[in-house]
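Dear colleague,

As promised, here are the two records you asked about, laid out in our usual form so they can be pasted straight into your sheet.

NAME FIELD: protein one
SEQUENCE, THEN STRUCTURE:
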Amino acid sequence: MNRLTVVAIAALATLASGLIAWGLGSAAGAADARTACSAAEDRTTAAHAQAAASAATSVLYTERDVRQLLDDQAANLRKDADREKASRDRIAADVRAGAVRMSIPVAAAAPGAAACGAASAAAAGDRHEARAELAPETGLALTAIADDGDDAIAQLNTCIDAYNGARARLAGQQLTEVR
C-alpha cells in the first residue's frame, strides 16, 4: 500500500470515529432533552392539579358559607314569624274576650256638629273624634289582611338579604378561611 492510501484510510477512520462519537453524543443530548421535557411536563401537571384542588376547595367553602347564610336567614325568618304569630294570637284572644276593643274613625252625622267637632278636636288634640266600634270578628278579619301584608314584606326582605349576602360571598367577599 502506498503512503497516500494509508493516509486516506487513516483520514477515513478518523472521520468515521468522529461521526460515531458525534452520533452517540447527539443521542445522549436528545435523551437528556426528552428527560428535561418530561420533568417540565410533570411539574406543570402537578401545578395544574394543585390549582384545581385549591379551586375545588375554595368552591366547597364558598358553597358551605352561602348555605349557612341561607339557613340562618330562614331560621331567623321562622323565629320572627313565630314571635309575630304568638303576638297576633294574644291580641286576637283579647279582642274575642272583649279586653281590647277595635274602632275606626267615622264622619260625624250632622254637618254642623262636624265643623264644630273638628275645631274643638284640633284644639283638644283629636281626642274626641267620632269613632265606630267594630265587631270582634270584623276587626280580626281586617287585621288579618294587614298581617298577611306584613308577613309578605318580611319574606321579601329576607329574600333580598339572602340574595345580597350570597352575591357578596360568591363575589369573593367575606369568605370563611379554610379551617
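NAME FIELD: protein two
SEQUENCE, THEN STRUCTURE:
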Amino acid sequence: MGLLDIFRKKGKSKPYQQPEPRLKSEKTASIKPEAPEKPTKETTPVQKTKEVKKEVKKDGGDAHKTLVRHIVTEKSTRLQEKSNQYTFEVTSHTNKVEIRKALQALYGVTVEKITILNKAGKYGRFGAYYGQQKARKKAIVGLKKGDKITL
C-alpha cells in the first residue's frame, strides 16, 4: 500500500493491535455491579403529599382559538332578539364542553344550551375548474335569562 502511505501522518498513527481474549471468569466478574448499601431503619421516611395546583386563566387562554367568529345573519339576529341565543362559528374539533368554557372565559356569561351543526362544504364549478367550499361547524348557544353578549 505504498500509494496510501502518502496520506498517513508520520509518527501519530499506531498499527492496529487485537485485544487479548478474556477468560469466562473475567467476563462474569466484570458484569456484576456491586450492590448499594441498604438504608437503615433509623432514618425517618419522608411523607409525600400531592399538591394540586390549578391554573386559573383570567384572559380566557385558548378561548379565542375555539370561537372563530360570530355569525350575523337574519336568522341569528332573530334568535338573539327572541330567545337570547347567539350563533358562532367554531373550529372543527371542538365539542360542547370546550365551547361552554370558552364563552364563560371570554364573555363571563352562563350557558344553558348548546346546539352544534356540522355543515359540509359545497361542491361547485368555476368555469373549467371544479372546487369545494370549506366545511364549517356552527354552535347556537342559549344563554341564561338576563345574560347578554355585547358584540
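A couple of things worth noting about protein two: The radius of gyration is 35 Å. The longest helix spans residues 96-107.

Best,
R.
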